[in-house]
Design brief:
It is built from 8 helices and no strands. The protein is an all-alpha fold. Helix 3 packs antiparallel against helix 4, helix 4 runs antiparallel to helix 5 and helix 4 packs across helix 7. The chain is elongated. The relative contact order is 0.17.
């Protein structure tokens, strides 16, 4: 089991944003999501965060294709649950992907994690055990 600083573990309970700002928090949340077979949501969100940091157009195009192939396209290995309009919008953006190419889908996935997965994480044995270690 990972050991985390006291303030971090407590702060994770304040908001999903606090949890995701901490690398250890991300890892613990990913472990929890894996138990629910929904880690693709976090992995997609993190991939989008990294994607936004890319400055080279060539690298951006390659990364956009990788994210699309891994998470967005129908029957992708880690397909995220988004509506067909958002999926088609991303598909259309792939010819000239910009830094905001995945923003709509990323917002949807963040809301899904915040309203669905995160509350269950706070009640989970994984999180409660870390709190008790403090």
């Amino acid at each position: 089991m990972l050991r985390a600083p006291v303030d971090n573990v407590v702060a994770w309970g304040e908001s999903l944003e606090q949890l995701l700002e901490c690398k250890t928090g991300q890892l613990v949340f990913e472990d929890f999501l894996r138990t629910e077979y929904s880690e693709e949501n976090l992995l997609f969100w993190l991939a989008c965060q990294e994607y936004k940091k890319i400055t080279s157009e060539a690298e951006m195009a390659l990364a956009a294709k990788r994210i699309y192939t891994e998470f967005v396209e129908v029957d992708a290995p880690r397909q995220i649950n988004i509506d067909c309009v958002t999926r088609e919008e991303i598909s259309g953006n792939l010819s000239q992907p910009g830094p905001n190419c995945f923003d709509g889908a990323q917002r949807l996935i963040y809301a899904l994690m915040e309203n669905d997965c995160y509350p269950r994480f706070l009640k989970s044995d994984i999180y409660q055990a870390l709190l008790e270690q403090q």
